[in-house]
Specification:
137 residues; 5 helices
């Protein structure tokens, strides 16, 4: 195992995922790529969708700076990537582009309607990924 991708958004589940990725990175001397994804709104100019104004890329850059500091403090090689788009798709695409061996994501308990609407990023990542996925509870 050489490359681990972590989906990160500074929630408690994401922090646990980052911690677990750090354990694996140390054990396997792997590098970690941490990504945070700014969501695209459903309606934008010409129907292409615009970045959700309540979820700006700048906020994600700040989250990634915190993740970088935590991993570098543990002596782990880390790269951060801010992405824009649908979170699960962006995480999986990054993992494929970088030849990741593992994707680590956190999960939180969703309500019935969120599950029915398929709003679980971790579930979507596990269905779409072509590499191993660790879902941290």
């Amino acid at each position: 195992m050489k490359t681990i991708v972590v989906g990160y958004d500074e929630t408690e589940p994401a922090k646990r995922a980052l911690d677990r990725a750090a354990v694996f990175a140390k054990a396997f001397d792997a590098s970690v790529i941490v990504t945070s994804v700014a969501a695209v709104g459903a309606h934008g100019p010409r129907g292409g969708g615009a970045v959700d104004p309540t979820d700006p890329p700048e906020a994600h850059a700040e989250e990634l700076a915190h993740a970088r500091a935590a991993l570098e403090g543990a002596g782990i090689s880390v790269e951060t990537v801010t992405a824009i788009g649908e979170p699960a798709e962006a995480i999986v695409t990054l993992a494929e582009e970088r030849g990741a061996d593992l994707i680590v994501v956190g999960t939180r308990e969703l309500g019935f309607m969120q599950r029915m609407l398929g709003q679980s990023v971790s579930g979507a990542v596990s269905r779409q990924a072509t590499c191993d996925v660790l879902i941290v509870h």
